[in-house]
TrEMBL record:
Pfam families from the UniProt entry: TsaD (PF00814)
EC category: transferase
Primary gene name: tsaD
List of residues binding substrate: I133, V134, S135, G136, G137, D168, G181, D185, N277
Role noted for this protein: Required for the formation of a threonylcarbamoyl group on adenosine at position 37 (t(6)A37) in tRNAs that read codons beginning with adenine. Is involved in the transfer of the threonylcarbamoyl moiety of threonylcarbamoyl-AMP (TC-AMP) to the N6 group of A37, together with TsaE and TsaB. TsaD likely plays a direct catalytic role in this reaction.
PANTHER family: TRNA N6-ADENOSINE THREONYLCARBAMOYLTRANSFERASE, TRNA N6-ADENOSINE THREONYLCARBAMOYLTRANSFERASE, MITOCHONDRIAL
Species for this entry: Streptomyces durmitorensis
Protein's UniProt name: tRNA N6-adenosine threonylcarbamoyltransferase
């Protein structure tokens, strides 16, 4: 069947249509610009924007796929984690569609969606694979087996800020526009990545191997900017951005490749908004090639939040014969990542 995926956990309203692992069409509306003057996502504004965008986005995804409402055979929806009000809008819409069309509903974990995004471009994920999720809210290393059936093994996480959050906050200090990640990436192009010796947090021999920390890096970047300002010097922004980006990319890829090696895993998948970063991509390629590890990174459009990735998880669940999620399901804003689905398929 055709699976409609709905995503509304943060500031993107996404709808995507997937059948048998193939993306038929998707659409995304973002309220990013409405949050820009606040320097971060305002939950109330995000929720209201989802109410506004839900129907047009579903309509547009259907149009792009050349499908009609009646072609939808199942609905998958993000139930968490994310902003409570934002999640509720998507879930209410998804329930209404499933109920009125008489098709099953599948509650999906947002991060599993990020993982599954890559299957739409590169086909089924090998079992096992290592996944580095790097986004505005998460920095995690996961050992993934069968998304529809197996628990996801959480190897490590950030102990403070997420990598995307670090980019966003430093960009603000540097006076770059929101969202900061793409702005840092652009600015870094003219800079020298070795200009500033920013720290490489949690990479010492006694540090946890798979955990991350980015708040110290953020502070170091702020202090560097402050020192220039105190001396009334113009900020060498390009050098600062390039050096910060280098430090983040270095730590992320070093730990991800080590995790692959230590667990004997031959494939690394890098997903989430920060996977769009040009230096993260380049360094991951270089280090994976040197270590004989296959690297998979979804195309930019599927890296950031979208409905297609949620549909991809729903499609895997449908094909694995998963139990649908009851229509009285609620959102879970801080859902732990144990399984991709609220109702995974039992292992025989
Ligand atoms: P989560 O998925 O954890 O709930 P989110 O929805 O904010 O969080 P995404 O939409 O996946 O995350 O990604 C947004 C983040 O990606 C932002 O922090 C943004 O700055 C960052 N980002 C996007 N493009 C780039 C880039 N080229 N370089 C660095 N960071 C980037
Ligand atoms: Mg977002
Ligand atoms: Fe996300």
């Amino acid at each position: 069947p055709v699976v409609l995926g709905i995503e509304s956990s943060c500031d993107e309203t996404g709808a995507g249509l997937v059948r048998d692992g193939h993306l038929l069409g998707h659409a995304v509306a973002s309220s990013m610009d409405e949050h820009a003057r606040f320097g971060g996502v305002v939950p109330e504004i995000a929720a209201r924007a989802h109410v506004h965008s839900f129907t047009p986005v579903v309509r547009e995804a259907l149009d792009r796929a050349g499908l009609r409402m009646g072609d939808i055979g199942a609905v998958a929806v993000t139930t968490g984690p994310g902003l409570s009000g934002a999640l509720q809008v998507g879930l209410a819409g998804a329930k209404t569609l499933a109920f009125s069309l008489g098709v099953p509903l599948y509650g999906v974990h947002h991060l599993a969606g990020h993982v599954a995004a890559d299957t739409l471009e590169h086909g089924p994920l090998p079992d096992p694979c290592m996944v580095l999720i790097v986004s505005g809210g998460h920095t995690s290393l996961l050992l993934v087996r069968d998304l529809a059936r197996d628990p996801i093994l959480h190897l490590g996480d950030t102990i403070d800020d997420a990598a995307g959050e670090c980019f966003d906050k430093v960009a603000r200090v540097f006076g770059l526009p929101y969202p900061g990640g793409p702005a840092i990436d652009r600015t870094a192009r003219q800079g020298d990545p070795d200009a500033v010796a920013f720290p490489r947090p949690l990479t010492g021999p006694r540090d946890p191997r798979y955990d991350f920390s980015f708040s110290g890096l953020k502070t170091a970047a702020a202090r560097w900017a402050e020192q220039h300002r105190l001396r009334d010097e113009e900020l060498p922004l390009a050098d600062g951005a390039a050096s910060l980006q280098e430090a983040v990319a270095d730590v992320l890829t070093r730990k991800a490749v080590a995790a692959c090696r230590e667990h004997g895993v031959g494939t690394l998948v890098v997903v989430g908004g920060v996977a769009a970063n040009s230096r993260v991509r380049a360094l991951a390629e270089e280090r994976c090639r040197a270590a004989g590890i296959a690297l998979r990174v979804p195309p930019l459009k599927l890296c950031t939040d979208n409905g297609a990735m949620i549909a991809a998880v729903g499609d895997l669940l449908v094909r694995a014969g998963a139990e649908p999620t009851p229509l009285d399901v609620s959102i879970d804003p801080s859902a732990p990542l144990e399984y991709a689905a609220l109702h995974p398929v039992a292992r025989a």
